[in-house]
Fold these 3 entries.
Entry 1:
Amino acid sequence: MKFIITFTFFIAFHIGAFSQSFNSAHFIDSLLLQMTIEEKAGQLSLFTNDWNDSGDMIQDQYVELIKDGKVGGIFNAHGAAYTRKLQEMAVNESRLGIPLLFGFDVIHGHHTIFPVPLAESSSWDLEAIERSARIAALEASATGLHWVFAPMCDISRDPRWGRVMEGAGEDPFLASAIAAARVKGFQGEGFVQPDAVAACVKHFAAYGAPQAGREYHSVDMSELTLREFYLPPYKAAVDAGAFTVMSAFNDLNGIPATANSFLLQKILRDEWNFKGFVVSDFTSVLELLNHGTAENAAQATLTALSSGTEMDMQAFFYLQNIPHLVNKGFLEKSVLDAAVRKVLQLKYELGLFNDPFRFCSVEREQKMLMKDEFLEASRDMARKSMVLLKNDASLLPLSKRLRKVALIGPLADSRQDMLGGWYAAGDGKKAVSLLDGLKSKLPDCEITFTKGCDIVAQDEQDFDTAIKLASEAELVILALGEPAWMTGEATSRTSLDLPGMQQELADKILSLGKNVVVVLFNGRPLTINKLDQNASTILEAWYPGTMAGSALADVLFGEYNPSGKLPMTFPRSVGQIPVFYNTKNTGRPWDGATNTTSRYIDSPNEPLYCFGFGLSYTSFIYGDLSVDKNQIIDNELVTATIELTNTGKFAGEEIVQLYIRDLVSSVSPALKNLKGFQKIMLQPGETKLVQFKIGRNDLAFYNKDLKRIAEPGEFEIMIGTDSMKLKTVRIRLL
Ligand code: BGC
């Protein structure tokens, strides 16, 4: 601790005399002068706590390393008392007393769990998403954490890939807005606040496009596609001030992302001016050997570090190899120092050199976790995240006069599954299941319940009970989907059908002719054609988080009118994948008749539910679309206006979407790209004018020289309720 005290004095003494950046540079330079190469390698090493729910178990080997000053950060450790204990080891027992960074996968809440990110993204509600991240940061920082491994900014067009659950879907415009909102939420007003945590933008880059949707698989894509569709959300997060970036597991066009100087240097540093540090993904420095791009640990270390990955997560390679690489002259000391400087900079900005324990207050922790207002915010976010896919018989909203309801399905009374994957310190026992939620909403109604079948096994044993309960009830709610473990990392699937015997169960129940509402819990688009054909009513609930059942009851009984829209296309079959809305026209677009045009012989081209789709209990009518001028000169703006009327019986919100198509350009353009959206609340019978301003920047794209430009010519401006039902008008860029 000696060192810290000396430097705390140094800082205090100089306050007011020098700028913060001068202070930090001077402080860090002085610290670097005192560090051995081993200690520097230690600052670039991140190790995991043993993963358990309370986050308070660590192996002896790490304790020794901490005391030796050979650890930069620990992840998966949380809890104010426990992180204090580890921090004390680092600060009091290591030679220089450099504090540890504590990181964790706080992806959609920490103790209060919010809907999974794909669900939150269905709300298209940036304020609510920012608030969700802010609450996660309030809780995380109160349990000793400084750093969260989020937001995940990977665009994906492939629901076979299980991690689509963690992302914002397929569209770069929506995902960029969401990425920025999440960073703002995590980092708050800046690190001077004791409740701001550093964000980590991951997984850089293009991890969401693995070949055949198989986890960790190679990514091979043109630089045009990369820049136009995949990079924008990472950039938005960096522009929003994210302090760290995580390199991805995959190789991109043959070069593993962890040792990819095109990504980590040219794009991230040179073009985007990123000043923070890059951490590898879990053992991805070691995996350079498996990728076949490094022969041994020393080479992997050298190539990863000199390509721009400053911190090694869990491979031990940096710790073990940096010293001899420097001593033998293979690694320049200046490269090592530059990397260490960035890690120390974050610790400095977080105020850890002044007070290493500022995040470790047990008192604050006790007050801060799962507060009523956090639970309420989670419930609200869950309601906003749900997407009404079908309501043909207007069964929803349900009447509170119902007296006998059968709740059937393997997920109907699951609390743990409601949290989805990556639930941080969330406790499934504290979650509200659908059964819990219905019971408290309808205390006077008899709610019968059976699972009907196992969620994954081929087992019909409970079918008879399910049929009996369904036959005796006024209404059936069928809760189907994927178990939470089936989405997230390492959960790629080749079939996106409902697992187990759930479809067969649904067939049996639907054939009874009763009123049936299907509620889906899942972390990715599924192939649910049969359900869509046979069920009149389908509500996509995703994994709604701690308050799942309460939020669902609010929606089912009309206390909240669903407004969510899909951030990702639902395919009809796995064979259509990748299927996404911003596709190109091709030289032979399907014309509805000619065999030799771009189509399948056994399936329509169109998906089951398109990007942006989602219904409401009320109905909205779009009027004519007009523009105030039909030409843009220089930096002028065009205003597009459309009239929106609520023609139904319920107050409701509609997410009005703006798409633009470049009709002719030097690079074959997408048929449409989302360029704006607004969430509009309307009372029954109410009309509002919705306006979007469109400028040159909205018409720009990457040309063949990879320059972002807008070319003169004609553009279609499209506004509507989803990516397919749109009103159109043309403008010209001069
Ligand atoms: C995941 C990352 C995560 C890291 C640490 C990896 O397996 O890909 O997203 O942040 O583990 O838990």
Entry 2:
Amino acid sequence: MPEVSLHDIRRLVPEEVFLALETSRGGLSHEEARRRLGLYGPNHLEQSEPASPVRAFFRQFTHFLAALLGIAAALAFLAEWMRPGEGMAMLGWAMLGIIVVNAVFAFFQEYKAERAIHALRLILPATTWALRAGQPEEIPCTEVVPGDVLLLEEGERIPADARLVEAVDLRMDNASLTGESRPVRRTSDPAEDGHLHDIPNLVLAGTTILSGRGRAVVVATGMQTEFGRIAHLSTLPQAGATPLQREIARVTHVVGLLSLAMGILFFAIGLSMGLGLWTSAIFGIGIIAANVPEGLLPTVTFALAMGAQRMAKRKALIKHLNSVETLGCTTVICTDKTGTLTENRMKVQRLFVDKLQVQAQEGCLNVSGHVLTALEADRWKDLFDAVIHCNNARRTRRGEGRHSIIGDPTEVALLEFAIDHGLLHRPFLPRMGELPFDSDRKRMTTLHWREGRLVAFVKGAPESLLPLCERQLVRDDTPALEQSERRRIEQQSRTFAEQAYRILAVAMRDIPHGVDRLTIETIERDLTFLGLVAMIDPPHREVPEAIARCRRAGVRTIMITGDHPSTAQAIARAVGLIPGDGSTGRGRFTPVIEGSRLEEMDDAALQRLLTPAHPGEPDPIFARMAPRHKMRVVSALKAMGEVVAVTGDGVNDAPAIKQADIGIAMGRAGTDVAKETADMVLLDDNFATIVNAVEEGRAVYANIRKFATYVLVSNVPEVVPYLGYGIAGAPLALTIPQVLAVDLGTDMVPAVALGAERPHSGIMDQPPRTRHERLLSGALLLRVYLFLGLIEAALAMGAFFWFLTDQGWRWGQPLRWSDPVYQQATTVTFAAIVMAQVGNVFACRSERTSVFRLGWFRNPWVLGGVAVELALLLFLVYTPIGNVVLGTKPLPAWIWTVLVAIPFVLLASEELRKVIADRLRRANDAVRQPTPRPRARAA
Ligand code: ATP
């Protein structure tokens, strides 16, 4: 194929374009496309190098906590220098070792988290529609080659540089190239020279289609495109820290600084009590090491990434880790109707034509039980011509001669109707122009050549189309549309809508010869009403249950649809958004607000309308809404302090999606623009998936609290030995290496396992947390430090003294460091803390629910974590390596009878606390009364 430049191609007429690129109107053949793919390579941009893993690894050493441990190690080496030969150097080395182990652990957590997020991005393959061997086919963008004929639709992103050969009202957003987001028109006419970005018949890779449609022949792909030439690809979203990660970083900093201050204070106290430099140093360093929650931050990142992965399994693709936590505090979901609550699989069931109600059944039309013959139906040929021709749905071949229809589901339904009723044999009328559908105008018009005249076919929402109609089709005649007839049609449209049908009005016009400028105003006027088409679009099966779950979870669901108010209401009733049948129950008071009414309302009135009078009251339904109205509702809700999730699919939805706390795009029906703007993409376009994602978001947050609790609890039994040593003169029950072995060894795997806990059944029965809720709340800290922590400390110190007393030691008796009994006793404390943590991991699986109700085997990771923890304990106690590194000594068998009881004691105490807390909560709930707030009805 000869090389063709963008500059050369712009001057050609479409036929010459095909010739120049050695292709045809029907696109390339499959073999040729394959050949060109081999020749030109895949259509993607070479990515800049990902961040180097070596750099990422070394970054782990610059963390605040690593620095803190480094200071502690330096102090140990200082102590060694001042009093050589007393083991402090060993301690210093141990701490340095810990820094390395911690860095490796954090590095792998981060690495795995990053990989998980990267893998998620790949789930949503970018595809585009192109003609191959004359048939439209959806192909991966990477397989686009020069010569491919692209089929361009509103909202799509252009995959390669291409020359237009057909354009209908095409407007592009070139912001990704030019930085300017003003829409620019594009046509297929030959053009003169100019800057590449300004040539009106070129569409360039990376730009998006704001409206209209067209066809274009690919000229350049991959790095040869204009985008490839200038892209630095630093545009890939950088994974910034999420608020939760920042909060955790803040908490660890505060805790770290506190422990540093405490360490210094205790060092000073030790000195002033005459403990000597060495003892005081151990004391201070121990306090620091015991308190620093080393593993917390990487584990949080890991939990967020795992949450995102679990969501993806449930068909919700998260694009930023931030959204995982925001989802958990969502208070309102603003949802579209079509495609999100309903299946978006429409089927024409009723017609209203010629003043008659017609039923469309399998292959036949019938009026009051009478099946119409083809001849009888032929008198509605204008209506049939209109639904077939004012239609952009296309038939495609899907392997072995099977056909499927692709396009806008409303239009697909019309084409299927035409096929089912044998209407496609009608003569094909060449299309001369199009005024595309947009959700503001709510109608669409095409122009055709029929029997030597120009005709316009129009279809759209009845309210948008009826006012433009001056006559109607009655028995092959077109008398004027009287006022009474108009009312009759409106009444019929309402009746259809109340039966949950989606309705289209259809009209036409013979364009008089005198009209020389064809514009919306000159075409869409003086129309002849042809009929109404009613389509059914059933709700997704899972939606009613999902809405009920939202209600229980304190999350409000607000429907914002472009459809007719009665259709919206009927669907709302079918999915349980409005309780009752509307004629008797409370449903009939649910306001339905139309876009036009919203425009009359000021912000205060809108906010009053959006404030429920009492919890659980049905929310208003918004119908006949344009995207700008949706945006207003979202802004009002946000101004009221709600955390808002918003769904959208069109280009015009992008501002609302951006404005929302969680913007959600439809994976199937959504445009590229909506998907790019969104924080989350629904792979199955289903409302129920949003609710699942909210559940997972809540679970992630709950899990982070769980392992934060778990990790912090063991700090108490680690600090208490030092307090006893420094203040009460007790023998030191735990050595510093042992402290670190708990924090960075035995605690790690169970903590990560808690991050994998699946959502508990009750998680959607609680109201959403507020966005400003502290991760480590007062109640949590009380439970950590004054309940679980103290119990662990008491058990560990108890075991220590039990062992010592059993060995004949009495209070006040000095113990030498080298005494094997003393070494065994510290080993007992160490083992007791680890055993208590075994009980604690089960205690932490839920703040409220009994572990017996949770099921012991529901999270196998926890069992695995406990197994690793115990294996590590045995290794550290019974192997020479463990003995050297931690200063432990093998324990006699009898002490295990005491140690094994420890997890059960801890767990039993926590179970008792849960029972009492539950009783108190219930008693509290029983006395609390809801306070009703008045809701202003819309004027
Ligand atoms: P939602 O906002 O919940 O997705 P929707 O899909 O009904 O609802 P729009 O796409 O804005 O919202 O459609 C509004 C109305 O426009 C429909 O009720 C229908 O009457 C009309 N309409 C929809 N699609 C077309 C189309 N392709 N051509 C002409 N009219 C259409």
Entry 3:
Amino acid sequence: MSLPQRLSLGVEGRVAVVTGGSSGIGLATARTLLAAGARVAICGRDGARLDAARDELGGVAGPDRVLGERCDVLDEGAVGAFARSVESRFGPAGILVNNAGQGRVSTFADTTDAAWREELELKFFSVIRPTRAFLPQLERAGGGAIVCVNSLLARQPEPHMVATSAARAGILNLVRSLATELAPKGVRVNMVLIGLVESGQWRRRYATQAAPGESWEAWSAALARAKHIPLGRLGRPDEAAHAIAFLSSPLASYTTGSFIDVSGGHSRHV
Ligand code: NDP
């Protein structure tokens, strides 16, 4: 018996697509997959943020391994155009990370019908549209993998995020159906369940909620205490990215329809 010289993720040369790859967990996932040898395409809506992320990633990995394209994942035409760009630049995508999105803070009492529709549309169609557009490429690439960035709210709803929690539970269910339907096509479908991970979303909440002069460190540590997170802190984007990269890789070749919890022990489920 011999040990491999160095354990590799096995994604060298693979083409990976990360929606919402211009910030937070998506940007960290793009970095991780590039470090593991993949070529990576990212998308987002804000052109300046996207350009900054593409330049940062291209600066470390080489511009020939990075594609950045403005695309709203809710816009079917834009998602189709993004899929065509990826294939013509790199060849068929073998990895799709459905990450784009954000949570909505609202209780049942203050969620309007319009807000419910908007939230359900964002959560469902941010998975449905890219999955539909990239599926033919994932099949052609062989050993395709989809990873959805979902939330612990799917299993552990919070009343102050009622619409997001319900929509996230729907994604938990959808991933299971997709995994079954796409298995014969050689495509695995999994997800990560994120607890609280430092990102653009939390930085924006800090900017509006922190007391005058309160540092990010003090604010986020107080948040972790208030939420009773056993590991005592928020997660880092790279900690979510590592779980996503594992599920997207051949190291997880016998895992589909499943999830990895990235919540620092915040999940109360056995
Ligand atoms: P960030 O705000 O840091 O990043 C979100 C990314 O998604 C940005 O690149 C943003 O770019 C992009 N995005 C948002 N909406 C769209 C859209 N319609 N089309 C294309 N791109 C879009 O947040 P996070 O890294 O925290 O979030 C990543 C995912 O993780 C989200 O789905 C979020 O709901 C989920 N999550 C995060 C948690 C956390 O604690 N951080 C907890 C649970 C789930 P732009 O705005 O320019 O389009």
